[in-house]
Amino acid sequence: MNKIKESLTRTPSPFGHSYPRDLVSFIFERWEDEAFVARLCREEGGEFQLPDRGTLEQVISTCYQASLLREEERPVMFRLIIRDSYLFAANEGPPTGMHRLIFSRTRPFNEYELHRLAPAADFYRTLIGIFVEPALGAQIWGLLHSGTRWMHAVYGGRKTSPPMPLSLVVYVTGPGQISVCIGDNIIASLNGGQINCPTLDVFNSKWLNTSLGALNAETWALHQAARVRTERAWAELDPEFGSSIGQQAIRRIISVIRNSNHGGLLVYLPPEMAEEILEENPYLTLKYQFLEYDSRQRFLSLTLRIMNTLAEIHGDPDAPEKQVGWQEYVNSKNENIALLDEAIFDVAHFIAALSAVDGAVVITKRQELLGFGGVISGDLDSVGMVAHALDTEGEQSEPVLSEGVGTRHRAAYRLCQKLHQAIAIVISQDESVQIVKWHNGMVTYWDQVPTGVPGF
Questions:
Q1: Which long-range contacts (CB under 8 A, 24 or more apart) does 312-319 make?
Q2: Which superkingdom does the taxonomy of this entry point to (predicted)?
Q3: Cα 34-36-39 angle, rounded to 5 deg
Q4: Within a 10 A sphere around the Cβ of 204, how many other Cβ atoms?
Q5: Does residue 95 have a cis peptide bond before it, meaning omega lies within 30 degrees of 0?
Q6: Where are the alpha helices (DSSP H) in 332-406?
């Protein structure tokens, strides 16, 4: 053990050693909220009890200490689940299940053992499994291979993942960066010495779906026209299906920019402003403009083709009223659907890459790509105070001075103050994401953290 300790370097902690215990206290305080516990159990589909305080402190403190270890300048990253091995089926595995691998003998649960296992337990594919022995405390029983589909909730995509078991799951994504989940639900995180519970997913809001409704309305009308022209039986589509495709594409764009570590700015404008923005205007100058109208609409055309193809392959003359939508799409094994899905996310990656050039990527709300390198006019009035939304609909907010943010944020605030129908998505180099718009008479921003896992 001494040789192991000598071979490791420990990142100096700016946080102190009280934070793991504070995080445990925060979790137990949340557990006293009966409404929160009831909602969590309802969403996860079962009942759950926290481990006792001593066990939880041992687990989180050990994970915290492991997060501070480094070897060859690489941070320690891993996922860990507290669940007995026998509760996992022996004959299942990704992409539709969990693959259980039990060690021939249990391993001690300490930061050095976690450090050894972390490289083998690839953060994106595998969890370290532990159980609690009354006499010895937590012990490591083996590895649980989950596959990568769980990341589609963050990155966007149509592939569904097996639900995380109703167990306590800990994510370690960097020095002092810990998130604690129950199943798929984040309950608390520690990042930069701050304890919080980032559960705000703006994509679940009514206002965003309404704001970006132009694409859904247009593709729906075009789909209905195509349905009239076809001679084959088509299944009925969920009217919100096109909107779901658009949401997943935007999630993918954001995640690619976040992972690039250079940041970016996406500006969504009303469709009727397309020609105005491409000419001289008082709002922004678009350095690189795209000319061809049809190629600017590739996202719309792909969405329509997906809608038509899904309706066609599920058409049944004996069940003309059968409705299909997102679930049938994600479960489809049809080759044409797979190709269209790949194509639409290639477009998303292409758009994300454009953000590497200084300035905004400008898109209409019908997902028509106008250009990139957009510079928001410095002549627009500055914004001294903005509202920080505390819920998805922005019904609760707190005033915040804008002086503490960067150039991208201030530019987005100025634009949204002038163009009330604009939506700006600001991705910082530190991977934080703000969605900005004019709301309730004030420039308002939402922190978009769909997973609550810091550093990921």
A1: 312/230, 312/232, 312/234, 313/337, 314/234, 314/235, 315/232, 315/233, 315/234, 315/235, 316/233, 316/235, 317/233, 319/235
A2: Bacteria
A3: 105
A4: 12
A5: yes
A6: 335-354
User: 205 and 52 in contact (C-beta within 8 Å)?
Assistant: no
Instruction: State how far the Cα of 97 lies from the Cα of 356, in Å rounded to an integer.
Output: 37
Q: What is the Cα–Cα distance from 23 to 454, expressed in whole angstroms?
A: 14
Mean pLDDT of all residues in 52-79:
86
Please count the other Cβ atoms lying within 10 Å of the Cβ belonging to residue 54.
11
| Beta pairing partners, 442 | 439
Q: How far apart are the first and last CA of the chain?
A: 31
Torsion of CA 335, 255, 99, 114, to 10 degrees: 160
Residue showing tokens 């078991």: 165
Dihedral of CA atoms 287, 288, 293, 298 in degrees, nearest 10, equals -130
Instruction: Answer yes or no: are the C-beta atoms of 324 and 236 closer than 8 Å.
Output: yes
As given in the structure block, the two tokens for residue 36 are: 């929160």
Distance between CA 24 and CA 20 in Å, rounded? 6
CB atoms within 10 A of CB 391: 12
The structure tokens listed for 258 are 């976040």
Summarize pLDDT for 67-88 with one digit per residue, the tens.
988 766 678 889 999 999 998 8
Domain limits, the chain: 20-196, 202-448
SS3 164: coil
Rounded to the nearest integer, the mean pLDDT of the chain is: 84
SS (H, E, C) 56-112: HHHHHHHHHHHHCEEECCEECCEEEEECCHHHCCCCCCCCCCCEEEEEEEEEECCHH
Q: How far is CA 81 from the centre of its chain?
A: 20
Burial readout 72-104 (b: 16 or more C-beta within 10 A, e: otherwise): eeebbbbbbbbbebeebeeeebbeebbbbeeee
Dihedral sign for Cα atoms in the order 35, 36, 38, 42: positive
pTM: 0.66
pLDDT in tens, 267-323: 999 999 999 999 999 999 999 999 877 889 899 999 999 999 999 999 988 887 889
According to CATH, the topology of domain 202-448 is YojJ-like (1 (3.40.1700)
